[in-house]
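Task 17 of the worksheet. Students: predict the tertiary structure of the chain below and write it out as structure tokens. Keep your answer in the requested format; marks are given for formatting as well as content.
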Amino acid sequence: MFSYFSTGKKDSTTHQTGQSPITMKGISKKLHIYFPLILLQGIILLCGMHPVAGMDIDSLRQSIGEHRANENKRALIVAYKALGEHYQSQFDNKLAVEQFELALSLAKDLENDPEVFHLNNEIGHTYFWLDNYRAALDYLIEANKVSKTAVAESDQSTNLSYIAEVYMSLGNYRQALFYQLEALDLSKGIADTLGIATAYHQIGNIYWYQKQYDRSLENYFKALGYFRSIDSPIRIWTLQAAISTTYTQQGQQEEALSAAKKSHRMALDIGYPYGIAFSTGMMGSVNLLMGNYEEAENQILQAIRGFKELNVTAEQAAFLDELAKINQARGEYDLAIDKLQESLRLYTQIDKRTDKVEILKSLSENYELKGDIETSHTYLKQYQEERDVLLAQSSDEQMKNLETLIEAQRKQQQLDKLQEQSRLARTRFYGYSLLFGLLVLILISWLLYARYRTQARANQMLTEKNAKIEEQNAKLLDANAELGQFAEIAAKDLTAPLGQLKEWVANSQADPKLTSTTAQLEDLVTGLSLYAVLSEPPEAQLVNMSEIVSEAIATLPANISHKNIKIRMQELPTLMVNRRQMVQLFQHLMSYTIRFKGQQDPEISIHWEAETQHYQFSFQDNSQSLSTKAQNIFALGKHLVTPKDVETVGVGLAISKKIIEQHGGNIWLSPTTEGGNTFVFTLPR
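Model answer:
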């Protein structure tokens, strides 16, 4: 009797899914498990072509040659993989392995861990399809060693499930269960429906081989529910086949035949050649158990022909064994021996020692029934020798894997409680979440209220502070206004007496020092009067600054004018300024130049530059140099230079500074190495 089991996992390439067929001799022994590549083959046949089946193979080989010449390793990896997949689509898995191994070598050179992982997985996968389980295990374990940070968790789960399948095919169910439980835990952690379904299916297989058929069915039906939720017809067919074989082992032949027929109809509906062949063989095996030899023979022969077309070795060997049972039941011992010899050859070819032992035993039985006792004893001896080797290996495996078995059993016991624990955990989580949410809401509300109170108090203090500042500013404005009025009144009141004093000094021919002092006093009164007037905001208008300079020269007071003054300047810009104050500005600067010119004629240069937010003017002269380190040179009443023959009261630069500041600019004395002074000031654009 045949039993069919399946696992299916999906990796990043979307095609690593499949079935693992298992064959039983009658109701006794496991025959064979196939890896998920079988499903890949089925999908290829179902869809009519492989992803690269339509590619021109010559063009693909030509591109490989070009990439080799250019030493383009990344492109070569892609090309080798494509060629390997092409060979897979042609069921030539030996050539497929060669291409994948070439790609793997390049991926290792590039230290491309994700590619190394997937290629090791693919090669192990393909070796499993070739029935080379040891090689398959080597590559899959190598993939498992790749850094977990470089591989998606779903791919890690796939790898664990693949390893479990290989161990199951080798008869090491303890290791198989251990890896499959690890895969299940990982799939549940990332809510991978396909991974969860695959794991339950494989766990059902493992229990099947341990003859725990009730637990096997329990896991199969769990897997079936998950596969139906993702609408996967081939995987659903796989579970139907597995359920049929399980019913057979429980002696429920009618249920087994019904399930086998259902899986056969499904395989026909989806056009799945492997499924059609296997379901046909399953029906034949059940009919064999029910004594329907003729119908069983026809169905099993159809199955063998189908597997030959697909180049599937193990299934051919297994169904040949089933066909031999029919010949033996009919007394056709020579025909039975022929079938068994062919089955033995195929099992030897793929190194299936466990199943080979069973075939040796059957050959011994048929030769004995035929009457050839000597040949029967020869096969019986071979059977005993092979069985002893397997028993010794089995004992050694039991000792090595005892701890693994205990851990696997512990995990399986935990699986039964997992759903209930998950439900209780969700209930607790929702309750704790609600409580936590309320606490967070209360905390946030309290923090918002505290922030509101703090902000309100800060706003109140700021309002009070601003009110005090406004009050102080108002007082300062009043004081400044009163001071300006006082200066203006004082200047006006002193004008008349000062004029009389000046007239008396001139008529009386007084001491020249008295005349100089009277002139200084007059300048001081005039300067104070002008300074007081500047406390008022200027009325601005568009004025050309070149005209301002010309007007300032023309209206210089008689006592400071100079007929030999030389002025060089650019064409100055037009600005929004107070015309009268700008004339005063240049007159005061020129006045300083003329008064402190020394023995030479006064020379003045005026330049300007346009900056981003203002115009910058420079007023350079040849007057007696001032120190740029001098303190408060623009202060009211500051006497910068006081030679005996110069009359000065120190008001002009203070007035200049106030004019510039009232227009929103700045004025300063710039250092110079050529003598003279350079006054720099800015005016807004």
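Marker's comment: Confidence is low (pLDDT under 50) at residues 1-54, 400-409, 643-649. The CA atoms of residues 351 and 416 lie 37 Å apart.
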